[in-house]
Write a structure and sequence with these properties.
The protein has about 375 residues and is of the alpha+beta class. The chain folds into three domains: about 150 residues, no CATH class; about 110 residues, Fusion Protein Consisting Of Minor Coat Protein, Glycine Rich Linker, Tola, And A His Tag, Chain: A, Domain 2 (2-Layer Sandwich), CATH 3.30.1150; about 90 residues, Serine Threonine Protein Phosphatase 5, Tetratricopeptide repeat (Alpha Horseshoe). It is built from ten helices and 17 strands. The strands form six sheets. Strands 1, 2, 4, 5, 7 and 8 form a six-stranded mixed sheet that branches. Strands 13-12-17 form a three-stranded antiparallel sheet, covered by helices on one side. Helix 6 runs antiparallel to helix 7 and helix 7 runs antiparallel to helix 8.
Length: about 375
């Protein structure tokens, strides 16, 4: 099986300015300009790097753009089956308002690669990616750009190297397991997870999800932790303690008849058993049922119905960042960017650091 690696380079023309015809609105499409267009990406804004020269800002922005394209492009199945590789050259006009228009291919290599390149660039524009327009005589003008994208097939590795140096397999023959089976894991989580005693009367409810690193020797480590409901450090600590209690009970994943290291998500649900918390627990359970219904609609691309369910769920359990993210993603699919950003920014406001930060910055800015 092969997967994709997309490598590209941005080719921008250089030269002296063309003289525009006078008039109230200049509709000329320039081929050269004094100041060239630049993708506006949050991490590469001059305000964030006041000491960077223009070339460094441009190199940063172009590299970020290629990285975003590489993450979103899907190698066409026809091209993969026919082993088609090569460079698709796209062209578009950067308008004075930073949007792009007249998007098309100058060179296609077949197999669906050209349309896929157009799809991704169009989707990024719809998602809110904007460009700094070209300047002629100090005024923004329309300018044509060329963007070559190289499609290259390579054999997919079954693993990647984690930040801690672990070889983490994503392609496995057998899933990691828990001694006694997954029903035993469910029972373990329900019976061994402890609600922080000092918060029993707070009626806090919520989910903390952890990415477990299950190594080939059966040892485990928490690779990441998401406190979707901002329960706080005491709850996060209890979730970590649950993982510590499970040491020695995990069975590693398998690949080609050998144990390998992989990751597994583990969700922990906190609900107080105090009698006064019954109504809070009931609201949370109802919100989760509505959230599941919303997810089902979303999987069927019925985004309006999904949003309606998530609206109802959030009315029962406000500031649930997982639901805010889901609703924001659905709103973005409907090109309701301002509403989507309101949800994404709310996630950041509640949690400070978010798992969806790259998407938020791309769509909503710094």
């Amino acid at each position: 099986m092969k997967n994709t690696v997309l490598i590209g380079a941005l080719l921008f023309c250089c030269g002296t300015a063309l003289l525009a015809q006078s008039g109230p609105v200049d509709t000329t499409i320039y081929e050269v300009a004094e100041s060239l267009p630049l993708p506006l990406l949050a991490r590469c804004q001059p305000a964030q790097h006041p000491n960077w020269p223009e070339d460094s800002i441009r190199q940063c922005a172009e590299s970020q753009l290629l990285a975003i394209i590489a993450k979103n492009i899907q190698y066409p199945e026809d091209a993969r089956q026919q082993n088609i590789e090569g460079t698709v050259v796209t062209t578009f006009v950067v308008e004075r308002d930073g949007k792009i228009s007249n998007l098309k291919t100058l060179k296609d290599i077949g197999g669906g690669c050209g349309p896929e390149a157009i799809r991704v660039l169009s989707a990024l524009d719809q998602a809110g990616l904007r460009w700094r327009p070209a300047l002629v005589a100090g005024k923004p003008v329309r300018m044509r750009q060329a963007l070559p994208l190289r499609f290259r097939l390579q054999e997919a590795l079954p693993y990647y190297i984690g930040s801690s140096g672990d070889t983490i397999y994503t392609n496995i023959d057998t899933q990691p397991g828990f001694r006694g089976g997954m029903d035993s894991l469910t029972s373990f989580v329900l019976n061994r997870l402890e609600y922080p005693v000092s918060y029993l009367d707070s009626c806090k409810t919520g989910i903390i999800e952890m990415a477990l690193l299950i190594r080939k020797d059966g040892s485990i480590e928490v690779d990441n932790q998401l406190d979707y409901n901002n329960l706080g450090m005491d709850f996060q600590w209890q979730a970590l303690q649950l993982v510590n209690r499970s040491k020695g009970l995990w069975i590693p994943a398998g690949y080609q008849n050998q144990p390998v290291t992989t990751t597994l998500p583990l969700r922990t649900l906190f609900k107080s058993e105090r009698a006064g918390c019954a109504s809070a627990n009931e609201r949370f359970d109802q919100a989760m049922l509505l959230a599941d219904e919303g997810a089902a609609f979303s999987n069927q691309n019925e985004h309006e119905k999904a949003i309606e369910k998530w609206n109802q769920a959030l009315s029962l359990h406000p500031n649930n960042t997982e639901l805010l993210y889901y609703r924001g993603s659905a709103l973005l699919s409907l090109n309701r960017r301002d509403e989507a950003c309101a949800d994404f920014n709310a996630v950041k406001s509640i949690l400070g650091v978010t798992w969806c930060e790259p998407l938020r910055r791309l769509v909503c800015g710094w």
